[in-house]
Design a protein that fits this description.
Length: 888
């Protein structure tokens, strides 16, 4: 505990009340770093210190933690710069207090998932930093690492890996040469012939034997007592996690004038796993333990629990004896003079993590050493606080007030916001900043221009000042880099505002209208197509239009832009309390419309038709967006095989002559093809052009006829057109169909086409296209499949999606497979399934195709109107089977 809370102390007769504090003073944290690092350097330099002592407690770690957005990463980067040079150190931090030798080597490693850092990359980063600093091999470690690399990355050079991953650009290209030098020196000492790089196994085996025999030629490496053992074991990731011991040993052998003290900054530590899945955390803990001559500064959202004995078995070293500096509650700020830093190596930055909220409440009010607030209530308060220490303070006071009134506080007593929190948040703000704060509470995220426009202010200066406040979070990689602390935002919008400059309902409505207009202006004036900006503006704009019953304005054009590229990112909007699922405004209707279109990639098409019917029947959409709902409902009807309903909807849209009329004409062409009326489908396709995706429709027609050359040409043209128009979604669709065509006629070529389609689909959400690609992968293996488990699983997945076209093409792929193997009885089973699907009148011609592939006679005259007659179609499909048989 940092001290006594006098407010709590004088609110109760209980003399055991204590309180902790949060701290965000960056200069104070620099002082903590200086003190801890100075103690570390002194300890390493003391007589008797040895890196080979694996039993002594570890105090080579400092932890700084706090909620997301509090500035931990910024602090980590600033510390890295400050430790690297005087130029990188903020002037107000002052001069460091440690000696000039050994020289410090800061190495920052971002453990965020987005950075793609695993344990292997972390170890390589440290070694690369040392390679750049020392410019000399570290033989014990380098030999072990080379052996690991050859075993885990056969055929992949370390140099190429470093270049591709960006590590070579960050640290230089010294490491591979240093490793080779170390290997060459050892090989020479052992009198080994040949190229060392191609005989790492022979070298390590000979070296292990020489070390164990204490040969004079390897006496330097023989000083590392555990090297031979590490070279004996399987070189996997678990073994790699012990190699830092070799690195620590090599650093200890450096001459005094070359001595270096690594300071390793591990940022975003919370992403190493959860508190129940600690695999990466366990490896990183070994790194810290096995490098006692290095100092580690960990930044993350929660404090490290390594000193907790309950973790025994999950981590290698646990408990207060192993980690004395990590015991107990986090230190909330700079230590006072005379406080030993080794007794508190966890520093709380800003807000609390959920675990620390509960821990804080448990310690804040106690009686006889036991928490006064029970565990269940602590959990409720912690969740409601969003980690804000001020909320915890107010909750403690409310708890005491309720007890004074003779009540037992319960969860319902903490279900509302604290008006005092709002008052205290606004207390030290300027009038412009107070005005801005209320305005940006309408937004999920903002930048300076958006905040200023929402507030209706003429200048950015107030917004620039506001974003420096601790309740404004900053994410430099986000679309809009700033957002309010969740609790501050909800309080501003829901709590009773008793301040003198509180807003009226009209003020809120006008600010919402300004925010909507500002979002539209950002989207409409962007320099080029920006899908991320479009989706972000739609999410925020639709929420504003819905919650404040605003006119749609630019949202109509944005809705069209959202559908044009066929990407289908999710558009989840926050649920309005008491209005779940209600359609009362145009904003509600547009949000539900776009949500239904996006969710159809994950729901059965019958759900899509129901949701779109509900939107249409509500009558809240403008005419052009009603056309959108009608078209996509008709498209869903077609996917379900409900051709009559689909045809009615497509005709209605086509006859309307609106923006989707070409798409509806394409839909009619697909419906004609589905019923086997190919002349009508062809004549319609020839009129569609790019806007109606005419070439893709032609490709589908030629595919049905077994004319894979013309189909591939049409699909290739369709893909090129999409690329020229910058339509990534359509490009992926055309490429998937092209891959399907080659899967039937040229399996070798299909490999490349499938790979390209997968690349184009990455980041898109197109369920039907993804299923087409899976069918293509199956068709490519026709005649060589050893079992059909994959096909059965794919059929189940297609049924769950409710996409008839994918289902019938899957059956055609299976018919090809069985026909190639001469399994006509199984082809007949496929035909039976195709006939069952064709009872609704869709894709009946594929049953004929299955007959043609197997050389089976039709059971009855066909109603299909082929473009060049059934004989030509039969011949082409039989040719595909024969060519595939010839390849077996």
């Amino acid at each position: 505990m940092a001290g006594r809370d006098l407010r709590a102390l004088f609110s109760t007769n209980d003399r055991q009340v204590e309180a902790g504090e949060a701290f965000t003073n960056r200069q104070g944290q620099w002082q903590i770093v200086q003190a801890a690092l100075g103690e570390h350097l002194a300890r390493v330099a003391a007589p008797g210190f040895t890196v080979e002592d694996l039993e002594n407690p570890r105090n080579n770690i400092l932890v700084m933690h706090g909620v997301g957005g509090i500035g931990k990463t910024t602090l980590s980067r600033t510390l890295e710069a400050a430790l690297a040079s005087a130029e990188g150190r903020p002037a107000r931090w002052g001069e460091p207090v440690w000696p000039t030798r050994p020289s410090l080597l800061p190495v920052r490693i971002d453990l965020a998932r987005s950075a793609g850092v695993d344990f292997e990359r972390a170890v390589l980063t440290i070694r690369l930093a040392l390679a750049a600093c020392l410019n000399r091999p570290l033989p014990a470690f380098d030999i072990a690492l080379r052996r690991y690399w050859e075993h885990q990355h056969p055929g992949e050079s370390l140099e190429e890996y470093l270049r591709r991953g960006g590590l070579a650009a960050r640290f230089g290209k010294n490491l591979p040469q240093q490793m080779q030098s170390a290997l060459s020196d050892v090989a020479q000492a052992l009198l080994l012939p040949g190229t060392v790089g191609s005989a790492i196994g022979q070298l390590t085996g000979a070296l292990t034997t020489a070390i164990r025999e204490r040969r004079q030629t390897v006496r330097a490496l023989a000083g590392c007592a555990r090297l031979a053992d590490l070279l004996d074991v399987e070189p996997d990731v678990d073994a790699l996690s012990y190699y830092p011991h070799l690195l620590a040993w090599e650093l200890a052998q450096l001459p005094a004038d070359q001595a270096v003290a690594p300071v390793i900054l591990l940022d975003t530590f919370e992403e190493t796993g959860t508190r129940t899945h600690r695999d990466l955390e366990r490896l990183l803990q070994r790194l810290v333990w096995l490098m006692p001559n290095s100092f580690f500064i960990v930044t993350g959202r929660g404090r490290l629990q390594w000193a907790d004995p309950a973790l025994e078995g999950q981590l290698d070293w646990t408990g207060p004896t192993a980690w004395p500096g990590l015991v107990g509650q986090a230190v909330p700020g700079p230590r006072t003079a005379g406080t030993p830093t080794e007794s508190g190596r966890q520093v709380l930055i800003g807000d609390f993590s959920p675990e620390d909220c509960s821990d804080y409440l448990a310690r804040r009010l106690t009686r006889d050493g036991r928490p006064l607030i029970d565990a269940g209530l602590r959990t409720v308060i912690a969740e409601r606080s969003h980690g804000l220490p001020l909320y915890l303070d107010l909750a403690v006071l409310r708890f005491l007030e309720l007890r004074r009134a003779g009540r037992t506080p319960g969860p319902a007593d903490f279900g509302t916001d604290f008006p005092a929190l709002l008052t205290r948040t606004l207390a030290d703000l300027t009038p412009d900043e107070r005005h801005l704060l209320r305005a940006v509470s309408l937004l999920d995220a903002f930048d300076l221009p958006l905040a200023t426009a929402t507030a209706g202010l003429p200048h950015l200066s107030a917004a620039a000042r506001l974003v420096e406040r601790p309740f404004v979070r900053h994410d430099p990689f986000a679309l809009w880099p700033y957002h309010l602390h969740a609790l501050i935002r909800s309080t501003l919008r829901t709590a009773d505002d008793a301040t003198d400059d509180r807003w009226t309902d009209t003020d809120w409505q006008q600010a919402a209208a300004r925010a909507l207009a500002a979002l539209g202006a950002q989207w409409q004036t962007s320099s080029g197509p920006d899908r991320r900006l479009l989706v972000g503006c739609l999410r925020q704009g639709l929420t504003l239009a819905r919650d404040h019953q605003l006119e749609l304005g630019w949202l109509t054009d944005a809705a069209w832009a959202y559908t044009d590229d066929s990407v289908w990112e999710p558009l989840p909007l926050p649920v309005q309390e008491g209005r779940e699922g209600e359609l009362a405004t145009a904003g509600d209707a547009v949000a539900e419309l776009l949500s239904a279109l996006a969710r159809r990639q994950h729901e059965h098409r019958s759900m899509t038709t129901s949701r779109l019917t509900r939107v249409i029947d509500a009558g809240l959409l403008p005419a052009e967006l009603t056309e959108m709902a009608l078209y996509y409902r008709a498209k869903a009807h077609r996917d379900l095989g409900q051709n009559d309903a689909s045809r009615d909807g497509m005709r209605l849209v086509a006859d309307g002559g609106g923006r989707l009329a070409p798409d509806a004409a394409r839909g009619l062409a697909h419906l004609a093809r589905a019923t086997g009326d190919f002349p009508t489908a062809l004549s319609t396709a020839c009129t569609l052009g790019w806007r109606g995706r005419g070439n893709r429709v032609l490709g589908d027609i030629y595919f049905a006829h077994g004319d894979m050359n013309q189909a591939a040409t049409a699909f290739t043209t369709a893909r090129t057109e999409a690329e020229q128009h910058g339509n990534t979604g359509e490009q992926a669709i055309a490429q998937a169909h092209l891959a399907l065509a080659y899967a039937f006629t040229d399996p070798a070529r299909a490999d490349d086409e499938i790979a390209l389609a997968e690349q184009l689909l990455a980041g898109l959400d197109q369920r039907a296209t993804a299923l087409t690609l899976k069918v293509a992968a199956l068709a490519r293996e026709a005649g060589t499949l050893t079992d059909l488990e994959g096909a059965r699983a794919l059929r189940t997945e297609i049924h769950a999606a409710g996409i008839t076209a994918a289902e019938v093409v899957l059956e055609v792929a299976l018919a090809l497979h069985h026909a190639v193997l001469g399994e006509n009885d199984k082809v007949r089973a496929v035909i039976d399934r195709l006939h069952q699907g064709a009872q609704r009148g869709d894709y009946a011609y594929y049953a004929d195709v299955a007959h043609y592939m197997a050389g089976l006679p039709l059971a009855a005259p066909s109603a299909v109107t082929w473009l060049d007659g059934p004989d030509a179609v039969r011949w082409r499909w039989q040719q595909l089977v024969q060519e595939r048989q010839a390849r077996r």
